[in-house]
Structures are given as C-alpha cells and as structure tokens.
Amino acid sequence: MAIKNVSAVPKAERASFWVRSRDTRTAYMYILPAVLVMAVITLFPLGFQIYMSFTDYGLKNLKYDAPAANWVGLDNYIHILNGDTIKNVIPSFDFVGTLTFNLWWALSNVIFHVVIGVLIAVLLNIEGLWFKRIYRAVYILPVVIPAIIIATVWKKIFDTDTGVFNILLGFFLGPIGLAKNVNGVSIVNIPWLENSQGDFMWLPVAYYALLFTNIWLGWPLNSVVATGALQSIPKDLYEAATVDGASGSQQFFNITVPMLRVAMIPFAVYGFITTFNLFHLSYFMSEGRPFGRTELLVTQAFKLVNVNQLYGIGAAFAIYMFFILLTISLITTRITKATASAD
Amino acid sequence: MTVDATAVQTKAVTSAEIKMKGAIGRPLKWYKQLLYQALCLFVAFTVLFPIAWVVSQSISTSKRITGFLPEGAITFEAYQKVLDKPTTNPISFIELTFNSFKLAAGASFASVLLGVSAAYAFSRFKFPGRSVVFLAILAVLMLPSVATIAPLFAFMNRIQVGEFNLRNSLWGVGLAITSGLLPFATWNLKGFLDTIPKDLEEAGMIDGANRNQIFFQIILPLSTPALAVTALFGFIGGWTEFYFSWQFLTNPKDFTLAMALSQMSGQYARSTPWDQFCAFALLVALPVSIVYLALQRYIVSGLTAGGVKG
C-alpha cells in the first residue's frame, strides 16, 4: 500500500542539461583564468621542454626568426648519463656523482635540522626557564633573512684570507701555535670554499662549510614546528607518567619522541625536498667547487643553460630531474603513510 | 560504594595537585637554570653571530676585514655610497628597488588572484577533469622553477614586437616568476579553503546568494589570512628572485636588487669594499625581514593549514 502510494507520486521532471551542468560551468569559470595562464606560461613551456630535450637546441635557434633545431632523438639523455660531449664544455660534469651528492646533501642536512630543531624546542619548553620569549624571537632570525643574502654573507664568512670563520679559529688555535699572525690578527688559512684542497671523510671541505651554513639556516623552522607539536601533546600524559613514577628521560623517550614523530616526519619530508633543490647555497657559496663536487642538480641545470647555453641538454637534464623528484616524493609519501598507520 | 568514592577522590586530589603545580610553574633548581641559560645563550650567540658581524662590518671605517668588532669610529658612509651608486652599472639603488618591487608585487598579486579562484573551484566543485588538472598542478609544483629556465627563455625570446623583447624585459621575468608561484598558491589556498566549513555557504545559498556572491562576500573575506600569507611568500620569492632575472635581463636599467647583490659578491667583484657589500645586504634584507618577523605567527599557521590538508 505504502509502496503503491510512493510510485503514484508523479516523477519530478528531469532537469534540462543546461540546468544540471550549472555547477560544472561555474567551476570551469573559476578555474579558467588559472588554467589559461598556466597553459601559456607553465604547461606550454614544459611541453616545449620535452621537445627541446630531443633536439640540439642552442644559441643558433634562439632568435625569433631562427630555423628550427635539429632532431637528435635520445642523444641528450645518453650524453647526460655518460658525459660525452658535455665534458668538452664542462670538464667536471658527472651526472651520477652529482645525483649521489645531492641525495646525501639533503639527507645529512635534514637529520641535523630535525634533531637540533627538536632538541632546542624541548629546551625552550622546559617549565620555569627564564626569557623563553626572547630566545624564541632571536632563534627565528635565520628564517626571516632572504636566502640570497645568507648565501652571499656566509661566502664572505668562509673567505680564506679575511673570513671571520678563520679569524675565529685563529682566536682559539693561535694560543697553541696553529695560527699565523697577519697585521696583528691571529688567523687560520683554511681555504673552505676555494678550488683545490683535501677531503675530510670522502667529502670536500666545501661540503662541510655548506652543511654548517645550512644547519644554521634550517633548524629554526624545524624548531618552530616541533614547538607546535610539543605544545599539542596533552599534559595529562606527563601527569600520569609522573604519578607512575617515570623519570624525565623516560618521559622524553616514551611520550615526547613518539608524539613528535607523527608531526615531524611529514615536515622532514618537505624539508628533504626543499634541501634537495636548495639553489642559493651551492650556487653562491661554493659555486660547485671543488671540481663540481658540491654541485646540485638545480645548480647544474642552471649552469647548463646560463653559462654553457646547452639548451637542449639543459631541457633533457630537467626532465631527468622531474622523474627523480617524482620518485623521491612517491617513496617519501609511502614512508609517511606507513609511519602514520603504524601509530 | 564508599571505597569507590574514596578512590575517585584520591585521584581527583592528585591531578588537582599536579595541575596546581603546573600552573605555578615548577621553579628550576638554580644549577639547572644556570645550565639551561648557558645553553640558550650559546644558541643565541651562534644565531646572532653572522648577523652581528654583517652589521659591524657595515659601520666600520676600515676598508679591509679585521675581525669581529668594527675598526675605528662608527660611520654610515658605506650606506651613503650604496644608496648613491650600488654597482658599476648606471643604475641607482632606488631604481633597483623599484624593479624588484614591481616584480615581487606583480607576480605575487597575479599568482594569488588566479590561485584563489582556481583553489575555490578545486575545493568546492566536482567537475570533469578536476583530478587530472589538480594532479598536473601538483606535478608542476614538484619541479623547481630553475628547471624550466631553458624553455621559458627560448619561448619568450621569440616574442619580439619592434624593439620590445618579452624575454629581455621585466614582464618576461614577472611571467616566469608567476609560473613558479601559481602552482604553490593554488595548492596552498586550496588547503586553506578546505578548512572553511561548507555550512557557511549553504546558509548563504538559503538566503539567496549565488555562487559569485558567496565567493566574493563569504569565502574571500574569510580567507584573508591565507591570502596574505600566500601573497607574502610570493612577494619574498619575487623580491629575492635571482636566476630568471640573471638569465633573462641584459639591460642594466632592468636590473634587480638580487642581481646587484650577486654582482657585488661575485668572483669578478673582488674590488667591492666589504663595508659596502654588508650595508647593501642589510638594506635588501631589512624590509622583508621586518614584515616576516611581524607576521611570523600567521605565516606558520597559514602554511600548516595548507600543508596538513594538502
């Protein structure tokens, strides 16, 4: 009976296509400006990049009335891997070496960033510590200074003859006779960023100078994020632990560390990709020296185009970078998800 | 019954006691306070050291580098010189600043304007092609903008109208910067818009507002903090942008602050006095640093909203 009644209700007239698609049309209207602009200034160049990577595009093809570049197939991709012909122009070119260094660079930095960031966040979270606000304000300073300034200033700090880093070392090493005296200033002459010098633990000294600078630059933001995470840990957990008689270090490793891990891992992944693509330090400070060993993929990509005008090879290089970054983010997404579900 | 009550009472007292302790703040033992203060001061020293050194050099009368403290009397001569003639190129500090400002403000404004409209569509509508276009934006986001320099250069260089070459102009650099900023703006703003409750819009619709009215009168005002943070990020990006301008621009009249700074410290600029270099670095860093510092709290929350919701 009831069923009959329902079926007896006359069906609402099906809305016309024009009415039904109204939301879709509105959506397209909102998205259109961005898509149009991106199509012209991002997607078209990316498509053009793919085309360029299969040609010998160079200076000769740049002018607006120039002939089209010659099709060379996969030559650029192969040259990048084995270094043929590129080494005539850039003797130190080494794709696999740069990629390996780049991965190690990002990994080593992120480890320091996260560990120091968390430790200092914990330090500033200690109950009863004086001047917390002042310290928090001071510690954020490296984040607010533009990267290009940081890189150029630190380059001067690591200068061989006049850099304040060597002067500082001279101040400590002078009294034990390991520094020399220049104009009354005791100074050590370590060529941190210069061309030819020895290695320390398989890596050029310039790497350590860059690492030092980037640790200085990177931990404060990690500390901010860790502070946020620390303050969101419910206080009851610590209260319960105190009641149960857990010591300070037990509380740190059994409550703080696991709770922080959830917040810090996604940020560490973000930091890894940012550091992987960190242009300014490598480009301005070490300039890739010695022998291109502190070159990153981004700086190498820039130099291929800017200094050497190898547009075709530069395009193929960028395509490689794209796939490398895609792989990295797929792997890191999996790691993030895996650790999230484990908790 | 009685036992239960006592147990509950004991528990309540304990947690109240602890809460009270927490509220007062357990005073640290003096040697612990001393140790932690020493640690904090050491960290503050490492953070401030390079900054203080730059300030000290910029007001030093000595032309050579001497160490930490400024040598001789304090002077602002270096600032004066930089403001008069920052580089060997015939361009003044004001012109450099104006060029940087045009790039930064223009690219930041364009990316936020286009980004928020697209972000609204992605956040609120289901439409054919939605996931494909959004994935494309995410894919572009992954590639650092340096990597698109070859095709952008080649493509814009072919656009020549009379004397005007798109590549060799602030317009071209501005477009290149915008192409780097737009995917980030769209993604970050979508993350924020996702956190705005839909009820607000539904209430607006019941009151008879159409989509555009909702967007302009409800969504835009509510997302002001996120818009401001995204715009600020874009502005800082444009203000210190280096590689596109360095690669694209050849006319000194178009040069930017970042280009001048790199010219002063580059390997062909050994003759640049350190005091002037330091003064210039401070003049470039100061405005954005102050803004950043003032808006720090909003920046962190504006970013994490987008990051968490992705």
From TrEMBL, chain A:
Gene3D superfamilies: MalF N-terminal region-like, MetI-like. GO terms for biological process: transmembrane transport. This is Sugar ABC transporter permease. It is found in: Cell membrane. Keywords: Cell membrane, Membrane, Transmembrane, Transmembrane helix, Transport. Its main location: membrane. It is a multi-pass membrane protein. InterPro entries: ABC_transporter_permease, MalF_N, MetI-like, MetI-like_sf. The chain crosses the membrane at residues 27-52, 103-126, 138-157, 163-179, 200-219, 263-284, 310-331. Belongs to the binding-protein-dependent transport system permease family. It comes from Candidatus Chlorohelix allophototropha. It holds the Pfam family BPD_transp_1. Residues 99-332 form the ABC transmembrane type-1 domain. PANTHER family: ABC TRANSPORTER PERMEASE PROTEIN, DIACETYLCHITOBIOSE UPTAKE SYSTEM PERMEASE PROTEIN NGCF.
UniProtKB/TrEMBL annotation, chain B:
It is a multi-pass membrane protein. InterPro entries: BP-dep_ABC_trans_perm, MetI-like, MetI-like_sf. Keywords: Cell membrane, Membrane, Sugar transport, Transmembrane, Transmembrane helix, Transport. The keyword Cell membrane applies. Its main location: membrane. PROSITE patterns: ABC_TM1 (PS50928). Residues 97-295 form the ABC transmembrane type-1 domain. The chain crosses the membrane at residues 34-55, 103-122, 134-156, 168-193, 214-236, 274-295. Gene3D superfamilies: MetI-like. It is found in: Cell membrane. Belongs to the binding-protein-dependent transport system permease family. MalFG subfamily. This is ABC transporter permease subunit. The lineage of its organism: Bacteria, Bacillati, Chloroflexota, Chloroflexia, Candidatus Chloroheliales.
